[in-house]
Fold this sequence. Notes:
By secondary structure, the chain is of the alpha+beta class. It has one helix and five strands. Strands 1, 2, 3, 4 and 5 form a five-stranded antiparallel beta sheet that branches.
Amino acid sequence: MKTTILALMLLVVVQSYTRKVMCEVEEEAKWPAGSYCILRAGGSCPPGFSPYDGYIRSIKMFNETPKYLKPANIGDSVIKHHVVGHKDSDLYLRGCCKFS
């Protein structure tokens, strides 16, 4: 009987703590007021933001070596060679913006 009561008390404490942590996380997820943009990741924007995309393709470069171009994916944004073996590159920016 004592073990059952202790187990139930522990369950209540764990559930209460879990609810408290989840509420704190939800409060932290609010974005500050103002007009600004963030880089998008995961394909969609947070609530209150709208998707905005832009790109520059076939950027002429002096050289295609890593000294001048480091391909990367940053969230949903991409920096890459336009065509491997050519001195061109592409920049795709995918963001989310909100305006007050």
